[in-house]
Amino acid sequence: MQARVKWVEEVLFMGQSGSGHTVMMDGPEEVGGRNLAARPMEMLLMGLGGCSTFDVVSILKKSRQQVESCEVEIRAERADTEPKVFTRIDLHFVVSGQNLKESAVQRAVALSAEKYCSASIMLERAGVAIGHSFSIVGADAAE
């Protein structure tokens, strides 16, 4: 896997993935940014969310669950001093579908956290406390 990041101006950067996709990153106004794009640390959180949500949906589909939507709400805390690393991240999955089994959703979230989500596991190994929770909304849940 590869990526490249190019400085554009001030604190605006353009990232390009090895697969050829481009994303912009910017800093806040107090450091010369114009708030034109996500911050690099926000990108890290979104990557974590994408990785884990991909797993949860995939596991639910393989379990023959009729998942219709899945999103993850992410809240993070950072250290007060430099380097301002993440110290805690909480992921809350909101899943809806037809006749979803609570046990299947719980299993999917746990498998993502403990076995499949490379981003989550890597951050935990680096000392970030990561919490996982879920709720089933909308369509009927079954058990």
Automatic annotation (TrEMBL):
Stored InterPro entries: KH_dom-like_a/b (IPR015946), OsmC/Ohr_fam (IPR003718), OsmC/Ohrsf (IPR036102)
Annotated Gene3D superfamilies:
2.20.25.10, 3.30.300.20
TM annotation in the entry: none
What domain of life is recorded for the organism? Answer: Bacteria
- By its UniProt entry, which Pfam families does this protein fall under? OsmC
Query: What is this protein identified as?
Result: Putative redox protein
